[in-house]
Structures are given as structure tokens and as C-alpha cells.
Amino acid sequence: MDIQAQKIELIQMLLSTTKPNIIKKIKAVFEEANVNAVINSSMTVAQLEKEIEEAEADIKAGRTYSTTQVKAHFKN
User: What is the DSSP string of 10-26?
Assistant: First the structure.
């Protein structure tokens, strides 16, 4: 079974459960993996649009890093 099929199966199981403890456990797994950082973002649409505009301006101004530079940064 590929990853997409597994996701769909998991979603179906989650939607059909009526047991709060299962939902709590699944949420805890995601929180432990720090997946909730994106899910629980309190960023508004306006803030997101502003960040996108700033990122596009940085790209146009040449304020970017190559893949090699990023990898080197995180190796240290």
C-alpha cells in the first residue's frame, strides 16, 4: 500500500471514530513530531500575503541562498 492510500485509510478511520482518547493520541503523535507548528499557525491571510510579497521582493533583489550554501549552513 502506498503512502497516499495509507493517508486516506487513516483519515477514514479518524473520521469514523467516536472515541476521544484515539483522537488525543493521534494529536499527541503529531505534536511530538512538531507537525502542529503549521496546523496551529495563528497567521492571518493578510500576514501570509505580506510574507509572500516580502519573499518575492527578496528573490527579485537577489537576497537568496543556493542549496549548497543552505546545506553548508546546517552542517555546521
Answer: HHHHHHH---HHHHHHH
> What pLDDT digit, counting tens, does each position of 26-56 carry?
888 887 887 655 555 677 778 888 989 999 9
What is the residue range of 56's domain? 3-75
Give the number of domains in the chain. 1
Cβ neighbours of residue 23 closer than 8 Å, sequence gap 6 or more = 14, 17
Residue 10 one-letter amino acid: L
Q: Is the pTM of this model over 0.70?
A: no
DSSP string, 23-69: HHHHHHHHHHTTTHHHHT----HHHHHHHHHHHHHHHHTT----HHH
What are the cell numbers at 22?
A: 484515539
